[in-house]
């Protein structure tokens, strides 16, 4: 049992220039333009941009501050091709045998299929792993807590940071994803969670004509 008292420092809140409601509405308007994109340009994105995006995701809250995430940034063309080939192998199985008719019907408006060229076209792939052990020096234990919740929050912040940088992405979840750990040489206690291609949209990029639920369908006040 740690007998030392916890250390605390003064909190320095963010103070936007606008009143809270206006600031929140401004942010909502920016995020309203975010879309999942499958048509990428091969226009380069510097490593510095990717580092800053991932650093923003790393500010996410986590269970007991264990920060149970690893972001593997991939730019090597040969490695991206290897990931695409393995992902498409799983996707062919998904569309041919694993997904039921209802699932396929739900996917139909999005125009998705087993072909994933964006995994090579996008200049970067960010593969998110969830850490099932905390092996940092000086930690009381190697246990991790609320891993899925913590990594999910970090991924939401990662996607937001990508959008605010003027880039686009897509949440790609080939199932199963174990091949990502093998290809990228990650230890067994790091488990694939999400694969995101990152870059600029193609000049002729289009996205599905879909709508988000209105506020009254997603918000309840009190009971």
- CATH homologous superfamily heading: NADH Oxidase
Number of discrete domains: 1
Order of helices and strands: HHEHHHEHEHEH
The CATH architecture name reads 3-Layer(aba) Sandwich
Helix fraction bin: 25-40%
Number of strands: 4
Radius of gyration based on Cα positions: 20 Å
Q: How many DSSP helices?
A: 8
- Secondary structural class: alpha+beta
CATH topology name = NADH Oxidase
Summarize the biggest pleated sheet: 4 strands, antiparallel
Give the class-level CATH name: Alpha Beta
Short description:
The chain is of the alpha+beta class and 223 residues long. 38% of the residues lie in helices and 12% in strands.
Descriptive overview:
The protein is α+β, with helices and mostly antiparallel strands and about 220 residues long. It has a single domain, classed as NADH Oxidase (3-Layer(aba) Sandwich), CATH 3.40.109. About 40% of the residues lie in helices and about 10% in strands. The protein contains 8 helices and 4 strands, in the order ααβαααβαβαβα. The protein has helices at about 20-30, 45-55, 75-100, 100-105, 120, 145-165, 180-185, 215-220, and strands at about 70-75, 125-130, 170, 190-200. It has a 4-stranded antiparallel β-sheet. The model has no long low-confidence stretch (mean pLDDT about 95).
